Amino acid sequence: MLYLIAGNGGPNFGDELIVAHWLRFYRAAGYDGPITIDGRGAGPSERLLTGFGDVAFVSRIPRHGEGLDRGYADFARLGRGFARANEDGFAKVSMIHVCGGGYASGVWRNATRLLAAASELKRLLGVPLVGTGLGLGPFVDMNAADAAAFRSIVDDFDLLECRDALSFDAMQTLVGARPELIAGLDDAFLQPVVPQNRASRWLHLSGWQRTALFGGAGSQAIRDLFAAFDKVVFWTCSRVDAELFAELSAEFPEIQRYGTHRLLNQSIPVAPQDAMLTCRFHPHLIAARVGMTGRYAARSAFYRAKHDLVLGLGSPFRPVEHGALGAFAEPDGRMTAADADRVAAKRRVAAQLLARLPNRTCGVQAPLSGQPPGERAPLDRF
């Protein structure tokens, strides 16, 4: 059994997207064995991600919870204790893959429980432990005992790919330079993004706070911005995003909603001539990859690290500024030009995972675009 640990189940579009990408990859590569996805919740993902064969969605290993005043070392002990007490329930696991995202970030000390449990299970079961596209930084108030506990976790990974410089530098500070620790890419790069072929220009909105998204602009300024586009669409990536959409659509009925199910199971409606206002990381990343311009809002160190990642890759997005709502930068095409090479680099990392998967039946090369063989994956194109 292939055991994937992920941030899905909230649901949140970016976390569900990453799980969908890895399910598509493993199935297209020829792995037809059972896959378990251990996320925040099972029900939402079961409804959003279908058609991948023998896949079970569970919420088994504890992650975020009570006791936020504890340190990283305290949560590491809890995670290892959970693994030892529940070893028999993981007896059929052949590889543990900690999928990418910011759900295991050090900004939440209690997320260390999840990583420590995976580390301990690797020791108990003697199976490979790999991590891809992880956003582990920033860390907060880490003392010597905390650093030792986290170092012990990292030591157990056969491959650990960090998606951003902040995480990679923090890991190198803890464990030093080593071949299994690599600076890589977000797991979204596992699949290419295919833009729509249309002449119309759309404005895309994504976020959960009106003031942040529009920089405090009033209703008339927002209305004037909307009038400059052929269509305005709102990506409701989570429940709080849906609440903001409901508020905005009552005032601006022209806004059309694209929910998580639609975004995952149909073509993502992006085109190079479009623009975006977003608080979200993955919408920013997807938009910039196809050559879009826009503005982003980041009001915490956690989100600044995320958006800085995209900016470092060449995004032309600027921060949201009061009084400059529609003043978008001209895209220069850097991210679009580099995208195929980045997808290929991500696939090389993924190939290392396949090589570590025991008793695998993988012989089909996963395609860079289009549907995988057969009808295994419901996703259209990304």
What's the SSE blueprint?
Blueprint: E1 2-5, H1 13-28, E2 35-38, H2 43-48, E3 55-58, H3 72-85, E4 95-98, H4 112-125, E5 129-134, H5 144-155, E6 159-162, H6 165-175, E7 181-183, E8 202-206, H7 210-214, H8 219-227, E9 231-236, H9 239-251, E10 256-259, H10 260-265, E11 275-278, H11 281-289, E12 293-296, H12 301-312, E13 318-319, H13 334-356
Parallel strand pairs: 1-2, 1-4, 2-3, 4-5, 5-6, 6-7, 8-9, 8-11, 9-10, 11-12, 12-13
User: What is the beta-strand fraction?
Assistant: 5-15%
For the biggest sheet, the summary is:
7 strands, parallel
What's the structural domain tally? 2
Helix and strand string, N-terminal first? Answer: EHEHEHEHEHEHEEHHEHEHEHEHEH
Record the strand order, biggest sheet. Answer: 3-2-1-4-5-6-7
Give the N-terminus to C-terminus distance in angstroms.
27 Å
C-alpha-based Rg, rounded: 21 Å
Count the beta strands.
13
Query: Helix count, per DSSP?
Result: 13
Please name the CATH architecture of the largest domain: 3-Layer(aba) Sandwich
CATH class of the largest domain: Alpha Beta
Helical content (DSSP H or I, runs of 4+): 25-40%
Q: What sort of overall outline do the alpha carbons produce when their principal axes are compared?
A: globular
Structural class: alpha/beta
CATH topology of the largest domain: Rossmann fold
CATH superfamily of the largest domain: Glycogen Phosphorylase B
Low-confidence parts: 363-382
Average of pLDDT:
90
